[in-house]
Design a protein that fits this description.
alpha/beta, seven-stranded parallel beta sheet, 7 strands
C-alpha cells in the first residue's frame, strides 16, 4: 500500500496515539493534532526516531483557523491528504437540571463542532484532489471516533450523548455527500477503553458492564480505525463499528444476574 498522508486529531494520547503508531507501522506519514504540545511533540519525535515521518500541530479543533492550519501542515509536508482520523473526544457528566448553557455549548463545540469543521476541511481537500486528478486509486477516507452513547444514554450524560448521536448521524450524511467522489466516511464507537479511566473503582464498574469482562485497549480501537481507513474497507461507507466488548448487545448495564 502506498505511503499515505494521515491526519490524526486527539493524537497525543489514548486512542489517538495508538492510531498514530498503527498508521506509522505501515509507513504512513502523520500529522498529529491536539492541545497537548509536550505529549504531541514527544510522540512525533518517537515516530521520526523509528524512521517514520510525523509532525505535530498545536491546535484547538473547535477553532476553524486552527483546523485550517492542520490541513495546511499536511499539505506543506506531504502535498496531499489521504486519511482523516478524527479521534478527539471530550467526555462530560453532570446532572441534567444543573447543566448551564455555557457548559452545553462547550461540550457541543468540543465534540460536534470539531467533527464538523474537520470533516468539512478534509472533504474539501479530497474533492480538490479528485478534480485536479491527483486523487489516489483509493480516494480519501474519514474515520470519526464516538462513544457507545451515540445510541445509548445515561441520565447524567445528556449533553455528551447528544453530541455523540450528532457525530453518528453526521458521519452517515458526510458519507452520502462524498460518495460521488469515491470518498468514504465511517465511525468507530468505543465502550470501556483503558485510557479512559483514572480510577480503579471506575475501571471495576466498567469491567462488570462488559460481556467480555475486561476493558479494551486503545490498540484494539486503532486496529478498527486503521481497517476502515484502508483499501481493505474500500466498499464500506456510512457505517458505525462499535469496539465495546459486547456492551451494546446487553439489555442492561452491570454484572450478569444469576437465575435464582
Amino acid at each position: 500500500m502506498p505511503r499515505r498522508s494521515v491526519i490524526v486529531t486527539g493524537g497525543a494520547s489514548g486512542v489517538g496515539a495508538a492510531c498514530v503508531r498503527r498508521f506509522a507501522e505501515e509507513g504512513d506519514r502523520l500529522v498529529i493534532a491536539g492541545d497537548d504540545e509536550k505529549a504531541g511533540r514527544a510522540l512525533a519525535a518517537e515516530i521520526v526516531d523509528r524512521g517514520g515521518e510525523a509532525t505535530f500541530v498545536l491546535a484547538d479543533v473547535t477553532n476553524r483557523l486552527h483546523v485550517h492550519n492542520i490541513v495546511a501542515e499536511a499539505l506543506e509536508n506531504y502535498g496531499r491528504i489521504d486519511v482523516l482520523a478524527h479521534m478527539a473526544l471530550q467526555r462530560h457528566s453532570a446532572p441534567f437540571l444543573e447543566i448551564s448553557e455555557e457548559e452545553f455549548e462547550s461540550v457541543v463545540a468540543a465534540n460536534l463542532r470539531s467533527a464538523f469543521l474537520l470533516n468539512q476541511a478534509a472533504a474539501r481537500q479530497f474533492i480538490r484532489q479528485h478534480e485536479d486528478g491527483t486523487a489516489p486509486q483509493v480516494p480519501g477516507a474519514i474515520v470519526n471516533l464516538m462513544s457507545v452513547e451515540a445510541v445509548t444514554a445515561a441520565p447524567d450524560h445528556v449533553t455528551f450523548a447528544a453530541t455523540q448521536g450528532g457525530v453518528h448521524q453526521m458521519t452517515k450524511a458526510v458519507a452520502l455527500a462524498l460518495s460521488r467522489y469515491g470518498v468514504r466516511a465511517n465511525s468507530v464507537g468505543i465502550g470501556a477503553i483503558r485510557s479512559e479511566f483514572a480510577d480503579e473503582a471506575d475501571r471495576k464498574r466498567a469491567r462488570e458492564s462488559v460481556p467480555l469482562l475486561r476493558i479494551g485497549d486503545p490498540e484494539e480501537v486503532a486496529e478498527t480505525v486503521f481497517f476502515l481507513a484502508s483499501p481493505a474497507a474500500s466498499y464500506i461507507t456510512g457505517q458505525s463499528i462499535f469496539v465495546d466488548g459486547g456492551r451494546l448487545i446487553r439489555s442492561v448495564a452491570g454484572p450478569e444476574t444469576k437465575a435464582s
